[in-house]
Amino acid sequence: MAKTLKTSGDYTVKAGAGSSGSHTIRLDASQVRIPGNLTVEGTQTTINSQTLTLEDQFIEVNRNNSTAGTEDSGIFFNQGSNNNQILYYDADQSEFVLGSTTHAATVSAITNITVGNLKIAEPTQSDHASTKNYVDTEVAGAAGFTLKIAGDDSTQITVGTGNTLQFTGDSNINTAGSEPDTMTLTLAQNLVNVNSIDTGTSNGDLILRANGTGNVVVDDTLTFSAMASDPTATTQTIVYNKTAGGGGTGLYFRNTNIGSGAVGELISKSKATALAIALG
What we know:
Elements: E1 73-77, E2 84-90, E3 95-101, E4 114-115, H1 132-140, E5 144-148, E6 156-160, E7 173-178, E8 182-187, E9 238-241, E10 251-254, E11 264-265, H2 269-279
Antiparallel strand pairs: 1-2, 2-3, 3-4, 5-6, 7-8, 9-10, 10-11
């Protein structure tokens, strides 16, 4: 027989000392319906049902947090004897994290986390997260891309599929990368372990130029390879080596402003001495 208990005001059912005591009020029925709002003011709510169904569109956690960016919050997944799995918002880092933790759901801040994997579908539009397979496929199938190295001449180098861009030079070349998309190449002021320097243009000049009023200093012996023929005279003095002639040195020079560009040979000490004696 159905019964209705009706009062004109608040109605309290209290067991023992109430919330400060240890007694329990048990509702024993196949279904318990509460047509109005339900407020639970205790510190813990345990639901032992096998299926939890909510009509709400959104679920709010960490409801009483009043300070922005200070409290971690999320969902724990109990894995029995294994570490708990967790999806939570890391307030300190302002990011979502998925992984496993040794913490229990009673913790107030996540300080132990092993980041886990997230399986997602292949992206179908630009604002979707990308899978590893998608990135690998796109990079491997790319026809090429343009890498721009900042320099005075704004040189552009195109690297195609299967090509490798490598910077080498022992301790003489330093490379550094930074955002956004910047690569810096620094050439050391003092070059070491350099065995040869070649020009990149056929028949091009190799220029050694000091800064300001400085000089180009050769701090060792200077060797000239033999020339097969005399070079063309210019307004600049050209010094070169070929078979020794009357000067006895084999070191020649040529300048259009000296002797109308005639070939001249530097005279050795012994030849100069002999010439001085001969001329009296």
